[in-house]
Write a structure and sequence with these properties.
By secondary structure, the chain is α+β, with helices and mostly antiparallel strands. The protein has 6 helices and 8 strands, in the order αββββββαββαααα. The chain has a 5-stranded mixed beta sheet. A hairpin with a 6-residue loop joins strand 5 and strand 6. Helix 4 crosses helix 5. It is elongated, with a radius of gyration of 23 Å. The N and C termini lie far apart (58 Å).
Length: 213
């Protein structure tokens, strides 16, 4: 079934559908001014330490994506193409360089235009691959290829951002096991990488059983 909508409404549906999906991933989303040149959505993480600009192309059916008369207008960090947006949305996520590479040039009556055909963007690599945009809690945006390279204050901040509670030393009644600041940082990093907050009761039970080092 195809629902016919005004092009402006189709664009709005795609814009807010994309915001909805990004919000479920943990991003804060802010649509930009409609019909203004530039990206359609600014997405940022909880502490605003990472931003991404996204262009959204919404289509009412399985159609080519119009790219205009020049590829210079292709901008942002990601392109999100949504076809059949009003019925059964199907999403494809590309990088701007991929859009430029896959674009086809057309000419009619001396006028040049560029298009992205469905056979080009309907690729399994792009299909519903929201992971390309990434996890807003990913530590790599801080400039570290390895979380273990972070400073102690950054680990404290990252832990509180991710889990909504401060990182603290375990109570002494959990087995009376002393822990140095370095050991605490090591366990906090493990929690950040596994995306599971530290449960000290379970943690020390596993330590006693030799399941953790």
């Amino acid at each position: 079934m195809t629902i016919t909508l005004d092009p402006q409404i189709t664009g709005n549906v795609g814009l807010y559908f994309c915001c909805y999906k990004l919000s479920l991933m943990g991003w804060n989303t802010m649509p930009t001014a409609r019909n203004a040149r530039g990206v359609d959505i600014i997405a940022y993480n909880k502490d605003a330490s990472r931003y991404v600009g996204i262009q959204v192309k919404a289509l009412s059916k399985r159609s080519p994506v119009p790219l205009g008369t020049s590829l210079e207008k292709i901008m942002g960090d990601y392109w999100v193409i949504i076809n059949k947006v009003a019925t059964t949305p199907s999403v494809f996520i590309l990088l701007p360089d991929e859009v430029r590479k896959l674009a086809k040039r057309g000419e009619k009556e001396g006028r040049i235009s560029f298009w992205l055909q469905p056979r080009e963007y309907e690729n399994e690599v792009f299909h519903e691959n929201w992971g390309r945009i990434g996890d807003p809690h990913d530590l790599r945006h801080l400039g570290y290829s390895r979380p273990e390279d972070m400073r102690a204050d950054e680990i404290y901040s990252a832990y509180e951002r991710q889990f909504g509670e401060p990182l603290s030393f375990p109570p002494l009644d959990y087995g009376h096991i002393s822990m140095s600041p370095e050991e605490l940082m090591r366990h906090a990093l493990s929690a950040l990488q596994s995306k599971q907050r530290i449960n000290w009761s379970e943690h020390f039970t596993k330590l006693k059983k030799g399941q953790l080092s």
